[in-house]
Amino acid sequence: MRYASVTDRLAGLGGAKWALHARARALKAAGEEIIELTIGEPDVPTPARFIEAAARSMAAGRTGYSNGRGEPGLVAALAARYTARRGREIGRDQIMCLPGTQTVLYAVLRTLVEAGDEVLIGDPMYATYEGLIAQTGALAVPVPLRPEHGFRMQVADVAARITPRSRVLFLNTPHNPTGAVLRAEDIRALGALAQAHDLWILSDEVYEDMVFPNVPFASPLDFPELAERTVVASSISKSHAAPGFRSGWCVGPAEFCARMLPLSETMLFGSQPFIADLTELAVSEPSPVAEGMVQRFSRRAAILAQTLDGVGGLRVHRPEAGMFALVDVRATGLSGEAFASGLLDRQKVAVMPGESFGAGLQGWLRLSLTQPDDRTLEAATRIAAHAASILGNAA
Ligand SMILES: Cc1ncc(COP(=O)(O)O)c(C=O)c1O
After folding, report:
1. Is the pLDDT of residue 347 over 80?
2. What are the DSSP calls for 74-121, one per residue?
3. Ligand 1 center to residue 248 CA distance, Å?
4. Total-model pTM
5. Gap from CA of 115 to ligand 1 centroid (Å)
6. Fewer CB near the last or first residue (10 Å), C or N of the chain?
7. Which atom of ligand 1 is nearest to the CA of 322?
8. Per-domain residue ranges of the chain
9. pLDDT exceeds cutoff 90 at 395
């Protein structure tokens, strides 16, 4: 039978990148003790008050159809939150609510680009971005994010890749997998380039509330001169330990939202009112769990650095935010995939190969910071032992 070409474009871009995680889960199911540092799920359950809010809302009959933009209470709460945080008026007509950042990014890219267009995207990148861009038919143009610049996107690297087909500069700050946070001056320079070449700026800020102490967060929404070309996407998945609720949104120009509305209606015919109600509560007050995660994740990044950095030639890249740390294993002569596969087999530690996040992380590993301190330390010790055994064998 015949299938649409999108199925070819997405082949290998979905679950295939998570093959090692799937193998680790299968080993666990078969009874093996595995330390799992693969995916980035919050290390605490969704706070009870949000679950209770959703249950109350369901019991109160909030189970009917919604609309393609979002429940009015949530839209108003998000407009108020972004107005307060970004220091300028964000109207209700600038908000769209969809099920999670992932769906938001899908719809935003569908609204902005198509075959023949190019999307400038940092490499390394979050594993689903390639597929998100590919589904539109547009071309992903990787912009190298370099360790020597703390993995922060450099304006010269973007400028060198702009063509007449460039349409979108796709940012992710704080960044997964590198944990880099763009500074205001980075965004100002990238924004000036976007203005000069009439590019949209799409910024995935799902880790905004998980910036480590003393690191300043900045968003393109902070810059009024970028208002007409900026779309920001986020959700409660990370900040409120609620990924299973699938509740996200974007903030953009009113005209952009009006253009995206029929797409959202076509995709979803609206989200669930009871999930909108819990999200309204969540975004109207400081997160009860974000600060604790920030403390624990930054502490575990330090544990990894103290235990692993410099051992057997390994290098630990310390994140500025988020749930992950990176380890450079190129000194072992192995790819990230080969190192991670052997580590799972011999040391029962599951980590993500850097290659799952783009060519820029060949020979690296991504470690999640969501295991308790003692397990994180144990994993680091086993990673060091694995590196030593590889180097010993090579000697
Ligand atoms: C950078 C980034 N964007 C988006 C997502 C997906 O978020 P959501 O659960 O809101 O769809 C993730 C999840 O890991 C992520 O790391």
Report:
1. yes
2. HHHHHHHHHHHHHSS---GGGEEEESHHHHHHHHHHHHH--TT-EEEE
3. 10
4. 0.96
5. 25
6. N
7. 16
8. 5-44+289-394, 48-283
9. no
